[in-house]
């Protein structure tokens, strides 16, 4: 039994002496390995980041008034958003909870076109830094209490951007009331940037 183990050890040592070891320095580096020979290849993998981080406010108060002379009847603070990730991201609204129970006989418009007793609220990307939009052109309208897949912003890696709340209301809607609009934002990785 000892002779057999010694023979296997010697055979293993001899094969190690005559084996070829190859390290790939780059993808174009090659080496021929003869039939019956052996070789090694170094493989390097890259781990891409999977954690997406975007900073945005959790509460945004706004006022809507028919007395504003502009097409946009909302006064809103600037909604700052920052992509803290190393990859581009898209920010979408997937659902908006709307509660109009404190406004009598008022309904919601999903399109931005309002009747006498309707309100429409949307989001608009900032066009001029720190300036509230006056028009409703290119506003993205929030749909009340239903699923929607609406992109509101695309940010490159480590980029900042901003949105404003915009909206309009019909002549029959009272200026003395409150209502709640709660959009659900979803951040996902994207391959495109603006």
Helix content: under 10%
What is the number of helices?
Answer: 1
The whole-angstrom Rg is 31 Å
Low-confidence stretches: 2-25
Tell me briefly what this model is:
The protein has about 190 residues and is mainly beta. The protein has one helix and eleven strands, in the order αβββββββββββ.
Compile the SSE list and pairings.
Blueprint: H1 2-17, E1 54-55, E2 63-64, E3 74-75, E4 79-83, E5 89-99, E6 107-108, E7 118-125, E8 140-141, E9 147-155, E10 160-169, E11 180-189
Parallel strand pairs: 6-7
Antiparallel strand pairs: 1-4, 2-3, 4-10, 5-9, 5-11, 7-8, 7-10
Describe it for me?
With 194 residues, this protein is mainly β. It contains 1 helix and 11 strands, in the order αβββββββββββ. Strands 1, 4, 6, 7, 8 and 10 form a 6-stranded mixed β-sheet that branches. Strands 9-5-11 form a 3-stranded antiparallel β-sheet, with no helix packed on it. The longest helix is centred in the first third of the chain and has 16 residues. The N and C termini lie far apart (74 Å). The N terminus is likely disordered.
């Amino acid at each position: 039994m000892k002779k057999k183990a010694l023979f296997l050890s010697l055979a293993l040592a001899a094969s190690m002496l005559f084996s070829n070891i190859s390290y790939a320095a780059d993808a174009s580096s090659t080496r021929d390995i003869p039939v019956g020979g052996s070789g090694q290849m170094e493989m390097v993998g890259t781990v891409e980041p999977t954690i997406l981080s975007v900073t945005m406010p959790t509460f945004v108060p706004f006022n809507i008034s028919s007395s504003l002379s502009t097409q946009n009847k909302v006064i809103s603070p600037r909604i700052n958003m920052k992509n803290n990730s190393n990859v581009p991201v898209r920010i979408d609204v997937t659902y908006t909870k709307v509660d109009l129970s404190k406004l009598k006989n008022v309904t919601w418009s999903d399109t931005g076109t309002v009747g006498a007793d309707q309100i429409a609220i949307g989001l608009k990307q900032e066009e001029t830094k720190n300036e509230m939009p006056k028009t409703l052109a290119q506003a993205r309208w929030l749909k009340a209490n239903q699923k929607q897949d609406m992109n509101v912003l695309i940010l490159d890696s480590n980029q900042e951007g901003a949105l404003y709340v915009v909206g309009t209301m019909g002549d029959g809607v009272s200026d003395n009331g409150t209502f709640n609009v709660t959009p659900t934002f979803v951040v996902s990785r994207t391959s495109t940037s603006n």
